[in-house]
Amino acid sequence: MPTREDDAFDSLVEELARFAMESDPAAATSVGLHQYDHMLPDMSRSGMELKARRVEEFLEKLRRIDASRLTGFRAYDYEALTRALEYALIKLRDWPLWRMVPQGFSYGASAIFALLLTRGSVPEQHLLFALRSRVRGFAKLVEDSINAVDEPYSLWIDYVKSLAKGLPALLGAVKALAKELEDGELAGLCDRAVDELKKLSERLDDLASRARPGYRPIGAELYRKLLKTMFIEEDPERLRRIGYEEAERYRRLMEEAAREAGARSIEEALEMIRREHPASPDEVLNEYRRAIERARRFLAEKGVVELPPMERVEVVETPEYARPVLPFAAYILPEIMGVSGKGFFLVTKPLSEDMLKHHNRFDILNTVVHEAYPGHHTQLSYLRLCPSIARKLLIEPTDLVEGWAHYCEELMLELGIERSPLYKVKVYHDALWRAVRVYLDVELSTGMISFEEAARKLARDAYLPEEGARAEVLRYTMTPGAQLCYNYGKRRILELRKEVERILGKRFSLSLFHRMLLEEGNLPLALLANVVVDKARKLAS
């Protein structure tokens, strides 16, 4: 029987879910809660301060519940939600990015892009109404976010200026849809929004003139606090040391695989990989489709993990308006709180020989493994079936989400999905890159190195092109802690797998372990490990 505390907790979770969706209606659209499709958040200073107060209130209400009296899955959800709210407060109060960079440009674009992806899954009149509402509110969202900035930093303002240049193309796509569906009002709103956003973009020059150089690291003390809210208890210096050790290990593995492939160096092996690309840009989408079917069949053949019902992945060409921000490929999650279980793979046809080389068959296969089978899509398909609303709110930040997808890469290599030594080089290269992220995350977040130093270090240590390394590191400066989750989460899953195998002995199987892990939905691995080990012990007894 549910306790009084259970009822209070369930009621609070429902209230918190409504608040989360109202605060982030673009996310609500993405997860399938289409009653929020017409909304945009309040990014004014007063709106962001109100959001912080509401988070504090939810945290106080949670702490008034006696967690020891919660039953079933609620005790774990209670702890996870408490830390998630503490994480949100750090981002809202202690290290308020919204006061350092105008976030309305990127948020508004994401909110409209999310709507465009729903075409075909919602009624056209609903889509048009939602687009009219969001396009109408776009300029105010941007203006409010500009006015909220009182501590601008040059690196981040330059990023927003480059992002703003792509907005006319996005709104042009909306206008084209409006014309196709004969909605003159929406077409007019798009024209007005383009004009308004152009004027607002000019205000970025004023912010740039007042901006402090570079970016603002979160700092060592807050960084430690942030990691604890993510259930990462290790000292940052220890994490940094592990990152260097992991990077060196994967570098050695790359060297061995390169020699096996007949290459004289890692660089030569990477160039050999780039030459294994489709014959033409038109063949790229078909290569992704073949890789998806291949990976999906392999899961069944090897008993990697049972796929939930009603899931599938569709490969589509990236719409023109999204190509500047998605130059290669991107996975769009299924509606984890909605009706559709379909995920999308957006693939951008390469416009040059160099971009075609990025779509080589080894890159494509490992990307499909990470994003679709058995990576993100498989994990999110299980999440759709999880009864816990709280765990559906915890897509980020958890070490499970990226840790699982990264774990899958080496798992599929070990099981033999592709025998070429060049595929080994590719998988180990991606693992090297994620290991380098660990120590760069620590060093950038604590202010040990500058942006420029970090970009050079990433390019050198992870064998990445300089331009790509700069774009990567720019994102790292705005997402402290997130880069750790790939390597850290993978290592935690491997440790957990070893423990469950020890407990179950001959009854252990990969499929069983993976199902035990995934069917619990999103939980930080520190909590999830306790749940899975408990299930294994009951099964073994």
Low-confidence stretches: none
Structural class: mainly alpha
Query: How much is the average pLDDT?
Result: 95
Strand count, sense and barrel status of the largest sheet are: 3 strands, mixed
Please provide the ordered H/E string of secondary-structure elements.
HHHHHHHHHHHHHEEEHHHHHHHHHHH
Overall 3D shape: globular
Q: How far apart are the termini?
A: 26 Å
How many beta-strand elements?
3
Number of helices: 24
Rg over CA atoms: 23 Å
Which percent band covers the strand fraction? under 5%
| Overall helicity | 55-70%
How many separate structural domains?
A: 2
Strand order of the largest sheet: 1-3-2
Task: Give a written overview of the molecule.
By secondary structure, this protein is mainly alpha-helical. The protein has 2 domains: 4-216, no CATH class; 221-487, no CATH class. It is 67% helix and 3% strand. Helix 11 (236-260) runs antiparallel to helix 19. The radius of gyration is 23 Å and the shape is globular. The two termini are 26 Å apart.
Annotation keywords:
single chain, 541 residues, mainly alpha, 2 domains, three-stranded mixed sheet, 24 helices, globular
Please render the helix and strand layout as text.
Blueprint: H1 4-23, H2 25-31, H3 45-63, H4 74-94, H5 104-116, H6 124-147, H7 154-164, H8 167-180, H9 184-210, H10 220-229, H11 236-260, H12 266-274, H13 284-302, E1 312-317, E2 329-332, E3 342-347, H14 353-358, H15 361-371, H16 376-385, H17 389-392, H18 399-415, H19 421-445, H20 451-461, H21 466-478, H22 484-504, H23 510-518, H24 525-540
Helix pairs in contact: 1-2, 1-3, 2-5, 3-4, 4-10, 5-6, 6-9, 7-9, 8-9, 11-12, 11-19, 12-19, 13-15, 15-18, 18-19, 18-22, 19-20, 19-22, 20-21, 22-24
